[in-house]
Amino acid sequence: MQFWCSAQGIAWSWTWRPYVGVWLLVALLAWGYWRLVKHARTGVRGPLSPTDRWRVAAASTAILLLWIALGWPVGTLGGGYLASVHMVQFLLIAMVAPPLLQTALPAATLQRIERRPVIMRVLTLVTNPIIGLIAFNAMLATTHMPVVVDTLMRSQLGSFVIDLAWFGVGFVFWWPIICPVPARPRFNALGKIGYLVFGTLAHVYVAMYLLLVPFPVYSIYELAPRVANFSASADQQIAGGIMLIGGGLFMFAAMTVLFFRWGREVEAADARQGEGSVAHAALR
Q: Helices 189-199 and 247-283 meet at what angle, rounded to 10?
C-alpha cells in the first residue's frame, strides 16, 4: 500500500494498488462539500431544487474524476509508465475538476464569503485575472519541464506536489470565470474569452513541443517498463495530441458558452436602453 502514486520502475501489472492519500483527499472533498450543502440548507425543508441537484451532480462528477485521475489504474500509469496518461491526469485535475467544483458551490457559501472582509481581500488578490493567467501558464510550463517531471515523479512526495500544483493553480485560474465573488463588473463575458485565449499560450507551446520533438524528453517514461505496443516517442506524441486537442476542445467549449452569455448580456443592455428611451419619451 502506498500513500500516493509515483514511478516505481517495476513491470506493469493490472493488480490493483491502493493509495491511501487519494482516498483521504476524495473523502475530505466529499465531506467538505456535504458540510457546505448542509450549512446552506439550514432551516430549509423539502427536497433539493433543480439548481441544487445540478450543483450536487457537478460536485460528485468532479470528485469522481479526481478519484479516477489519481487512483489506480490511471494514477499508476500516469505516475511512471505513460506520458499520455499523465497528460490525461493534467486535463482532469487542472482543467475539468476545478470549474466543476466551483460551479457546485452553493449560493449561500458565496454570500458568506462576501460578508468576510479579510477573506474577500485575499480572494480578490489571489483570483485577480492577471495573477491567474501568469500562475496558470507558469505552472503548466514548469510542471511539464523534463527536469521537473523526471525529478519529482520519482517520489510520492514529488508526485503529490505536481498534482497539488495542478489542482491549486487550476482552481485559481478558473475562479474569475466561474464564480461571481468578488464582483468584477469590467470583466465581462468578452473579457473572459480573451482571458481563456491567453490562458492557452503555454498549453499550446508544450503540446506542440511534445508533438514535434524527434526524441523522448522524459527519461522517466522513456525508461519505464513498456505497457503498450508503442514506443516512448509515440507515447509522447500522443501526450502532446491529448493536450492540444483535448485541452483545446475544452477551452473552446468554455469560450462558446461565454460567447453566448456575452450575446445575452448585449441583448439585455439593448433592452434596458430601449426601455429607458421609451420612458424618457413618455415623460416628454
A: 160
